[in-house]
Write a structure and sequence with these properties.
Tetrahydropterin Synthase, Chain A, about 55% helix, 3 domains, Helicase, Ruva Protein, domain 3, alpha+beta
């Protein structure tokens, strides 16, 4: 079937994939945009998996400062200095820094999560689930049910606090992991988000509540 330019454009906006890749995926999916998006994701992951074993020791530091109130630095690693100096990688680094400023992730991925923080969060969720149980229920049964509930709640928590799982603020139809995968495919190299640091003025000091992160996000979406 003939694939319209409008459909290709819509898929490209959803996935940030190249025009030709979008057209091929739509042709393979017989014009079904959701199926085409799935095809692009699967192909992109396969390509990224092949690249992931290659050493990425070059790269750039991306940075972003919002109204002198929030500052972020992020290290993006690439395989070569050449790709690190491309606009594609530099823009990716800046976008990731801006995203971190707006969304404030705790970790890059679940594997990267601090065990102490994870244990504390799990304990909080277990206690919440126990308190939700029927008062007449035996304590051991309460705890067993709570542990089962917490499995799902921990997955949801990880999806909210891990950078790679978060919807990209400039295009919520894709995750940061998908954006990373698309960028790696564009430059043809293994690309990694290695580490980041986020600073917010007055963080940890009791003060008037100001949601700078929401302000950053609103400006990015304008």
């Amino acid at each position: 079937m003939a694939i319209s330019a409008k459909l290709v454009k819509e898929l490209r906006e959803r996935t940030a994939a190249g025009m030709m890749d979008c057209k091929k995926a739509l042709e393979e999916a017989n014009g079904d945009i959701d199926q085409a998006q799935k095809i692009l994701k699967e192909k992109g992951q396969a390509t990224l998996d092949k690249k992931s074993g290659r050493v990425a020791a070059e790269g750039v530091i991306g940075s972003y400062i919002h109204n002198d109130k929030i500052g972020v630095m992020v290290e993006i690693n690439t395989e070569t200095d050449f790709s690190a100096n491309t606009d594609t990688v530099k823009n990716f680094a800046k976008d990731i820094a801006m995203h971190i400023a707006a969304v404030n992730p705790l970790f890059i991925s679940e594997e990267d999560a601090d065990e102490t923080v994870v244990a504390e969060q799990k304990e909080i969720l277990v206690n919440q689930a126990i308190n939700e149980a029927n008062d007449n229920m035996p304590e051991d049964k309460k705890k067993m049910i709570a542990e089962k509930k917490v499995e799902g709640r921990m997955k949801k928590w990880f999806s909210e606090v891990c950078l790679l799982d978060q919807p990209f603020v400039k295009n919520p139809d894709i995750s940061i992991e998908e954006y990373l995968r698309n960028t790696a495919n564009d430059v043809g190299e293994n690309i990694q988000i290695r580490r980041f640091a986020r600073f917010e003025v007055g963080e940890g000091i009791e003060k008037k509540e100001e949601d700078f992160a929401a302000e950053v996000q609103s400006q990015m979406n304008m």
